[in-house]
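Much of our argument rests on the idea that a fold can be written as discrete symbols. The amino acid sequence and the backbone structure tokens for this protein are reproduced below:

___
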Amino acid sequence: MDCPEHVVVGLTERIREVVGELPFEVNGKGLNMTVSVGVVSIDPSMSSVDAMAAADRACNEAKARGRNCVVRLTDKDAALRMHLEELKVVADLQKRVQTERYFLEFQPIVALQSAMASTSYEVLIRMRGEGGRVIPPGKFIGAAERNGLMSQIDRWVLRSTLEWLDDHPDHRDRLAFATINISGASLNDIRFVDDAFAMIAEHPLAMPKLCFEITESVALHDLGSTRRFFDRVRMYGSKLALDDFGAGYTSFNYLKEIPADFIKIDGSFVKEINRNPANYAITRMIVDLTHELGMRSIAEWAETPDTIASLIQLGVDYGQGFGLARPMAPEIVTAATSGGALVNDPLVLTLLQDGTAGAAIGAATGQGRRRQIAR
């Protein structure tokens, strides 16, 4: 208690040095040992559990810095503040009643070649904290992943989406598809899978409208579990999308193992498509491959009119991104007649409605790429 700063530093460094100096013998063989030390000051507002968790966070930071070192976090350190905030989020996630704080938003996925003909979107979960403040998705999703709570979130999203579609039958019947994400933790959780198919059996009319999204890392973590799950949901008419396609080294290889209905082109290619000739060429190759295999392509991070023009020129089937539409309340999407009706940017609307405009802008950006290559 009330330990001065220089004493804390001296004591923890001495612990580290002594452990490193002590011989450690196993079966007659000498082993060198080092120690990673994490230290935090106990704030009066912290519970004993939070204090231990914060010290563990400091210890992990010491390991991340190469081990054999001491890391002391104070209330001024951003890493500690973020960790304590995450602990609060996790506590909220673990409460049985906290699902009242969840809500859904839909982000339109716009058909680039026929924007006014259909409606599609990705279902996104949001969470309100204390006082109604919306917690950034990256913060609570990351906390859930690190603390084994993703199955709880996936279960809520699936149930809420199925119920929403059946509560709005006119919208459901004219909907092309709605994508929802499934985590690797859920695919490998027997209880989640059992609960999921119990819910699915109760909503046979909504299921053909669902498209389940998985990333490459999830698909390959346990290929058997992934295939069994998607073989079963396909019996109900559901579809499969491979997310972040192209980001990994084995993307093209695992297309043979898990034939999908949609390929979501990784946004890092799309975002720089008009400034990086390689990104343009890779995107074109992915689009051609998906069409050759009877699949459809979705380009993420479609954020600017010139990017959208190039996607149209390349024959990409769908676009998703802030340049087309941001995530919005389900009621807004439900009232729309098509994905194109949810686009607000006049220039983007012109591109979607007039193929010649898209070709003109696409040609201009193509000339820019050729000049860049020539230089």
